[in-house]
Predict the structure.
Amino acid sequence: MKIIINGAGGFMGREVAKIVNAGDGLELAALIDIAGGEGVLTSLNEFNGEADVIIDFSHHSATIELIDAAEKLGIPLVLATTGHTPEETDYINTHTDKIPLFFSANMSLGVAMLVKLSRECAKIFPDADIEIIEKHHNRKLDAPSGTALMLGRALAEERENSKLIFGRVGQAKREKGEIGIHALRLGDVVGEHEVIIDTGTETLSLKHTAHSRALFARGAVEAAAFIVGKKPGKYTMTELINAE
């Protein structure tokens, strides 16, 4: 599998490159980064070789241009960036008819299982209070995290008349159907997400902790292998874990 890494100069891009260089059957087709460098292209539009898939760990602001370039080349795309604007998210959701496009706010298989289990709990305990707590390092820009939003939206899909509440302030009791999301930023925390379900008589806590950012690179490579050869369309971690 020949892989183009977009955002190759960043931490995650370098982690993907390590996996590709060490993996059997994996080959670097190109390194792309806006900062350039020796042997590094500055744009996907400069690529004219052969590749099976693109893995993007650049910045969400490059998403629209990247999708257009991938469609022009006819190469499947794994989007592993977060913090997308509503316009960018809409573009992702409406440009899936030309290439396979894999998109997830979190590339961890463990987080995918957390989403799946949380959905099941929301079904089993339809009247329980649900709160989400996420922790990340103090350099993270977006809050709440894309993963917390993914969890919140997945849970909201399982409940009618639910709504997401971001943090709590003021004087008002908790309303029925609220799904609270709380963001903590401290130290060098890689990533921690906890879903708390409370029925009033018992509490269930589902938690995922990332110990290394390298796990997201591994997940992106697995996602890339999954979509190669697939029909055009949007794919997520749900399809990947269900195919396991």
